[in-house]
WD repeat domain 61 (Iphiclides podalirius), 319 residues
Amino acid sequence: MPSEAVYSLYIKRENAHEDPIYSCAWTQASTSSDPKAPKKDFIATGGLDCLVKVWQVEKNKLEILHELHGHAMAVMSVAVSPDGHTLATVSIDSTLIIWDLVSGNKVHEIQSGATDMWKVAFSPDGTQVVSGSHSGKILIYGIEKGIVDRVLDTRGKFAVCVDWSSDGKYICSGAVDGTVCIFNVAQGKLIHTVEAHAQTVRSVAFSQNSQSIVTASNDGYVKVYNAASANFQCEVNLKSWVLSACFSKEGRRVAAATADGCVHFISLDNMNTLKSFKEHANMVCEVQFNPAGVRLVSVSKDKCINIYECPVPPKQSKK
């Protein structure tokens, strides 16, 4: 079956925020004390309206669960802990807020002073979050006490984006000058500095097996590197600013968001485009797969949240 026949727009929620939406995260969490109760799908979004919204995906609909107030300026990034229960949000108001996702209660509010925060990511055990800064410092915060546990140094690279590998070994950051930095977490050391892109790196993300890193940049390229060695693996030019890229669960595909309003699904087998959607009227700011890797959410400056069906392609389709 051709890929075009199975990839489709599943849900479109218009005017989901009053202003452009900059960030999203998709998770599953249990809302019951019964450990055998099925988990539910939730999407968190943040944007220019200073709001964080938590949505429940159920019965082909996107229903609002919480509208969280706490930031004084645009929310640039949202992230959810691996167990789905803790939400972290950062804003250009230099504030990091930790929330309980299911209840919507605020747990901690951390003021970072003059440190800009553009992206946040959780440690694999959910006890810490990492965020970059304009000074090039990578800050690791403990969730329980809400204080800085460790500081890593990119040596002056303005860190726009960060991610933490699921095996806990590596933290990666992307900088305004196109540089990608890879840290060994146990050693607290910068182990690789890669001149990956010609322009700002907007997004870095590890594959689920922690072996690869996908990077996205204003130069139009999506690139994949080996996480341990930083060796270049492959690339694709999408001819527009790429604001976000992420791996699917099975690791054979990458989704990318571009400034021309498109969402692209790319095969890592041959770097060909499996499917491209232009369902947004403005630049797409972020994309995230659901935990199963069969659906994808995109958010945009057009204030819409879109969800796509994107089934895992059969392995025999490899060439």
User: Anything to note?
Assistant: The CA atoms of residues 120 and 131 lie 5 Å apart. DSSP finds one helix and 28 strands in the chain. The first strand starts at residue 8 and ends at 13. Residues 1-5 have pLDDT under 50 and may be disordered.
